[in-house]
């Protein structure tokens, strides 16, 4: 397995936002530590890339300023190439690649080798990378890359589980609202409709027509409430 060298997607096609904020996340810190240990690399990151920056919820062995800030600019990012292509990106010696010559991870942090695998959501869209980095040129074996790919799949599954839990919470909240509405407001509106119907039987002419319009307005209100409850965008 080897990374691609042609980047067809533009920066404008990077995700507009990242699924997590720029703070340390215990679950993904653990994943980064495991990846660093298994791959015997100085650094490992769970990196999320958007149009404006790189967010690092999981990190192990990274510089102290990045460990505190958990974000940096795309000028430092190797992971952006993973997201742009939704493919592995593997660098054995950054000094031999002209397009990385001005990358700040190379010029400021001294990164020489990198291997990153895409993190994908339930739709298969890449939004980040699980990666390892080294200060020395390094040959990444097929076994190492396959292991990193397996770990990235597990990391993607963690993100997807969180997304599924969020969606489930939205559904549960929608159902709670529905129950409250049906036991409260909708019930009161039905009672109002029944009362107006009883009054209608005692009226004739213009008054009856005005009451019909009032009953129609209440019925429309009930329909709008139902639409509001059941058309929640998931």
Automatic annotation (TrEMBL):
Domain GAF: 23-169
One of the Pfam families matching this protein, by short name: GAF
Recorded GO CC terms: membrane
Entry-linked SUPFAM superfamilies: GAF domain-like
SMART domains per the UniProt record, alphabetical: GAF (SM00065)
UniProt GO molecular function: phosphorelay sensor kinase activity; protein dimerization activity
Source taxon at top rank: Bacteria
Protein name: GAF domain-containing protein
Species the sequence originates in: Jatrophihabitans endophyticus
């Amino acid at each position: 397995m080897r990374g691609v060298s042609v980047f067809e997607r533009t920066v404008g096609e990077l995700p507009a936002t990242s699924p997590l904020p720029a703070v340390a996340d215990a679950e993904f810190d653990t994943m980064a530590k495991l990846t660093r240990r298994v791959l015997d690399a100085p650094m490992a990151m769970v990196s999320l890339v958007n149009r404006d920056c790189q967010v690092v919820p999981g990190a192990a062995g990274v510089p102290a300023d990045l460990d505190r800030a958990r974000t940096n600019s795309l000028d430092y990012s190797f992971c952006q190439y993973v997201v742009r292509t939704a493919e592995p990106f593997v660098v054995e010696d950054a000094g031999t690649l002209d397009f990385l010559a001005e990358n700040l991870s190379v010029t400021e942090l001294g990164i020489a080798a990198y291997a990153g695998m895409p993190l994908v959501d339930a739709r298969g869209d890449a939004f980040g990378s699980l990666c390892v980095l080294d200060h020395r040129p390094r040959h990444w074996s097929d076994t190492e890359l396959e292991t990193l790919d397996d770990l990235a799949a597990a990391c993607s599954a963690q993100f997807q589980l969180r997304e599924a839990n969020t969606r489930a919470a939205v559904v549960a909240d929608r159902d709670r609202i529905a129950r409250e509405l049906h036991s409260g407001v909708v019930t009161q509106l039905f009672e109002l409709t029944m009362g107006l119907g009883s009054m209608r039987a005692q009226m004739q002419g213009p008054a009856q027509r005005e009451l019909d319009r009032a009953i129609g307005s209440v019925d429309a209100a009930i329909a709008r409430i139902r639409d509001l409850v059941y058309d929640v965008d998931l």
